[in-house]
Write a structure and sequence with these properties.
The structure is a single chain. The protein is an alpha/beta fold. It folds into 6 domains: 103 residues, PriA, 3(prime) DNA-binding domain (GIY-YIG endonuclease, 3-Layer(aba) Sandwich), CATH 3.40.1440.60; 65 residues, no CATH class; 175 residues, Rossmann fold, CATH 3.40.50.300; 175 residues, P-loop containing nucleotide triphosphate hydrolases (Rossmann fold), CATH 3.40.50.300; 43 residues, no CATH class; 87 residues, Alpha-Beta Plaits (2-Layer Sandwich), CATH 3.30.70.600. Helices cover 30% and strands 24% of the residues. The chain has 21 helices and 32 strands. The protein has a 7-stranded parallel beta sheet with strand order 10-11-9-12-13-8-14, sandwiched between helices. A hairpin with a 2-residue loop joins strand 31 and strand 32. The longest helix has 16 residues. The radius of gyration is 29 Å and the shape is globular. The chain binds adenosine-5'-diphosphate and zinc ion (2 copies). The site of adenosine-5'-diphosphate (ADP) has 15 residues, from helix 9.
Length: 734
């Protein structure tokens, strides 16, 4: 041991909150032992903040003598593993964002707030040997006697005993506390117990079909590789993941599985849990802070062998990670849409590279980026052609809305088909990507429509609460009884949303359950579970909803999928809108005919001959993607070029525009950079702020980065009456 008098001055580099691209330096006192990946309490201006140690080193000549000291080291052990530290550093550099939030992404909220890194389960109560054997009647107090008797009976039935359980049985803390003093009872907090992954099965694996077997065989067990596993819904991708996971677990390595936001239902969890004896934890936004805290600690300690999570789980520290699976890799929920706008799929790939392990990306409708990488040979590419359980693909046809009578957005022809399928004892799924009752409130006399006073957008009529609601800023108001332009009272909802569809369907099919899936009817995982349970009940039913219905759920009884309206995406100014629309169409179509019955898909459209639909009607996503890729190549858009989007907003439109103009001028001075704009954003006003965007393109990623970096350094994101942000690899141009 070195003595303190000779102790050389040490410096800890610590990521702290604020507009800092990297960590700040703090002095380490002789009795402190910060390690990279641990948290510290440090002074920052007049505050105390929780920071993350990214490195510890001897003081150099560059370090000032007036550095502040660490107040307290919060963790003796590093909480973040070296690969997570490196990943977080990369995130901050790649997305050109402050360092601290990148490290904080890796933590659950409890640890971000500086709480101790320990399980916050309730303590367990355990009888001592004396407590097990003492006759309760030897105790004086009546309450204590009852408490001991209850504890002994629980002990006999080997139930894990917690204060909550006792309370449920009428025994309060005051009654059993005395038993602890008498050494009859002990309190034990749960401990983390690392377990070795085994890969032992609880339930036998299925025999893979030839496509599945080929995909599994092609996936290397070690070394960095990316495999794109492309297969329609029901083609058996999940079975391939499960068997790849088993190989990994059997090699004593752990597995991280990422699923889209809405995809992590108890159903999904069950499927993974039922297969393996190894323990599994879930990490998603539907959990309480306490649950997330515990799940995170279990993952980090190696207690769990399988970690199943949504977006931010990609930064969970996991010892001996051997495989990452990204299910539905095209899903937009992998991209964070505010503050640090990272893409979890891209982080997964970077992490796999760091750890030198394989990553599998699965999708029925791969993103154009992944498809391009696969076709270029950068990724392995396996395609599952057949549906695993042997059913046929759904038939798809269009209904020309120009030729049809329709009511509440549903054509006579579609209505007729719905009736047929219901009469056959089947279920029907109707897709409409618009929630609410009607997208607007309309004057029949002069054509006036009600707009949001704060956004450049229409208000949506919600009949259930008789409110006009803005889906962009949340503004609410009562529907106008009288037209503000012409004074007419002949006002009516125009167009149809899910709420209106539900109402119309209830009137048309009074004896059939109508089950609605949208953000208004399904607010959380429990609601979702409830609606899914209704959908899985026997007998005819109509499922109606938004894209919530398109994601991964199995509806075995659905034989008809009706797409009420998808035309909007055809003409959107957002170049990604068509990709998303095609993916959605294929995903929704995949919901039908998963049981023994063949499925049909019917698409209502005013543009049945649009070339965009042609490959999709053949259910030919690869050809559709090829067409879009050709378009992207011609215009230098991703994946052929690299994009960033600068967005500004201000109550004063000139200020928002002026900032981006200045930036555009600076960017144009750089070689190999093109800019488009500034233009008013597609939603040009939102919540009272005027919004502008500037698209920045380059054929070289590194050029794009080095051109943008000085802007981030020179312009604070928050200015007076003005904010701006940078979105690298934007997926939403609204
Ligand atoms: P995906 O993940 O591509 O949607 P799944 O793995 O969920 O497909 O498979 C769809 C259905 O087919 C599931 O019910 C699954 O149990 C079944 N299945 C998958 N692979 C096989 C197989 N090799 N043999 C028989 N059934 C299979
Ligand atoms: Zn009017
Ligand atoms: Zn609004």
């Amino acid at each position: 041991m070195t003595t303190t008098s000779k102790h050389p001055l040490r410096i800890a580099d610590i990521a702290v909150p604020g507009p800092f691209a990297g960590p700040l330096s703090y002095r380490v006192e002789a009795d402190q032992a910060p390690v990279p990946g641990s948290r510290c309490l440090v002074p920052l201006r007049s505050r105390q903040v929780v920071g993350v140690v990214t490195g510890v080193r001897p003081a150099g000549t560059d370090d000032s003598d007036t550095l502040k000291s660490i107040i307290q080291v919060l963790d003796e052990q590093p909480l973040l593993s070296p690969d997570v530290l490196q990943l977080a550093r990369w995130v901050s550099r790649y997305y050109l964002y402050d360092a601290h939030p990148a490290y904080m992404l890796a933590f659950p909220a409890t640890l971000r707030a500086g709480e101790a890194a320990e399980l916050n389960d309730e303590p367990r109560l355990e009888l001592t040997v004396a407590g097990e054997h003492l006759d309760p009647y030897q105790l004086k107090g009546q309450r204590q006697r009852e408490a001991l008797a209850e504890l002994q009976s629980l002990h006999k039935s080997s139930l894990a005993c917690t204060p909550a359980l006792l309370r449920a049985r009428g025994v309060e803390r005051a009654h059993w506390k005395g038993l602890i003093d008498k050494r009859l009872l002990k309190q034990r907090t749960a401990e983390l117990k690392p377990a070795t992954p085994e890969g032992a099965l609880r339930q036998e694996a299925l025999t893979l079909n030839s496509d599945q077997a080929a995909a599994l065989k092609a996936l290397p067990t070690e070394g960095f590789s990316v495999q794109l596993l492309e297969g329609v819904t029901g083609s058996g991708k999940t079975e391939v993941y499960l068997q790849a996971m088993q190989r990994t677990l059997a090699r004593r390595k752990r597995v991280l599985v990422l699923v889209p936001e809405i995809g992590l239902t108890p159903q999904t969890l069950d499927r993974f849990q039922q297969r393996f004896q190894d323990s599994l934890v879930a990490l998603h936004s539907g959990m309480t802070d306490k649950q997330r805290n515990n799940a995170w600690l279990r993952a980090r300690a190696g207690e769990a062998s399988i970690i199943l999570g949504t977006r931010s789980a990609v930064l969970t520290p996991i010892p001996d990670l051997g495989l990452i699976v990204v299910d539905e890799e095209h899903d937009a929920s992998y991209k964070q849409q505010d503050t640090l706008r990272y893409h979890a799929r891209d982080l997964a790939i970077y992490r796999a590279r760091l750890l030198n392990i394989p990553v599998v990306l699965g999708s029925a409708t791969p993103s154009l980026e992944s498809l391009h990488n696969a076709r270029q040979g950068r990724y392995l590419h396996q395609i599952l052609q057949q549906r695993a359980s042997g059913q046929h693909r759904a038939r798809l046809e269009t209904i020309d809305m120009r030729q049809q009578k329709h009511e509440h957005g549903v054509s006579e022809r579609l209505l007729h088909r719905v009736r047929e399928h219901l009469n056959g004892g089947n279920q029907v799924l109707l897709f409409l990507n618009r929630r609410g009752y009607a997208p607007s409130w309309f004057c029949r006399q002069c054509g006036w429509m009600s707009d949001c006073p704060f956004c450049d957008a229409r208000l949506t009529y919600h009949r259930g609460r008789h409110q006009m609601l803005c889906h962009h800023c949340g503004h609410q108001e009562r529907p106008q009884p009288q037209c503000p332009d012409c004074g007419s009272t002949d006002l009516t909802p125009l167009g149809a949303g899910t709420e209106r569809a539900e109402e119309a369907l209830t009137a048309w099919f009074p004896d059939t359950p109508i089950i609605r899936f949208d953000r208004d009817s399904v607010a959380n995982a429990r609601d979702l579970e409830q609606q899914l349970a209704r959908a899985h009940a026997d007998g005819p039913a109509i499922l109606v909803g938004t894209q919530m219905l398109a994601k991964g759920h199995h509806f075995e009884r659905v034989t008809l999928v009706g797409i009420i309206d998808m035309d909007a995406g055809l003409f959107s100014a957002d170049f990604r809108a068509r990709e998303r629309m095609g993916q959605l169409l294929v995903q929704v179509s995949g919901r039908s005919g998963r049981g023994e019955r063949a499925g049909e898909v019917v698409l209502q459209t005013y543009h049945p001959d649009h070339p965009f639909f042609t490959p999709l009607l053949m259910q030919d996503y690869p050809t559709f993607a090829t067409q879009l890729l050709a378009e992207r190549q011609r215009s230098g858009l991703p994946p052929y070029g690299f994009l960033a989007c600068l967005r500004s907003d201000s109550a004063y439109p000139q200020r928002a525009e002026q900032l981006l103009k200045e930036m555009a001028t600076r960017l144009l001075a750089e070689a190999g950079i093109r800019v488009f704009g500034p233009l008013p954003a597609l939603l040009s006003r939102r919540a009272g702020k005027h919004r502008f965007t500037l698209l920045v393109q380059s054929d070289h990623r590194s050029r794009l980065h080095s051109a943008l970096q000085p802007l981030v350094a020179d312009y604070p994101r928050q200015q007076r009456h003005l904010t701006w942000h940078l979105d690298i690899d934007p997926i939403d141009l609204m």
